[in-house]
Amino acid sequence: MADARRQLRSGTVVLGGMGLLAAALTACSSDDPDKRCVDRDSYNAAKGYKVVAEKNCKTVTTVDGAHYYGGKKKSGWVKGGSFTKSGKGSGSSGSDSTGVHRGGFGGGDSSSGG
Questions:
Q1: Most Cβ neighbours (<10 Å): which of 1, 59, 107, 113?
Q2: Interatomic CA distance for residues 17 and 2, integer angstroms
Q3: Is the sign of the CA dihedral 93, 36, 79, 41 positive or negative?
Q4: Over the stretch 21-49, which tens digit does the pLDDT of each residue have?
């Protein structure tokens, strides 16, 4: 009887440990799978930007590192992306689904131009 309880407890510990491991891996994974650190000064029209170590984007180094989003990576180079992180939505803000911003200087009834 005691052996059955001990076996059940050890199984619970293993399953609980797997859950913790999965949670830790999920928390450590990047929200931007297509985010790469590149050298801004390495642009080549045929290849794109040279991919460099992430430390070059986090600290000041001799490399002008910046994050590059999207694009296709090939042989240590990435091409066809952007230095601007794209939003999750369609690009519009607020309740205005057309993507047109109304108001501001010289526009709309509620603007206060100066």
A1: 107
A2: 23
A3: positive
A4: 555 544 444 556 689 999 999 999 999 99
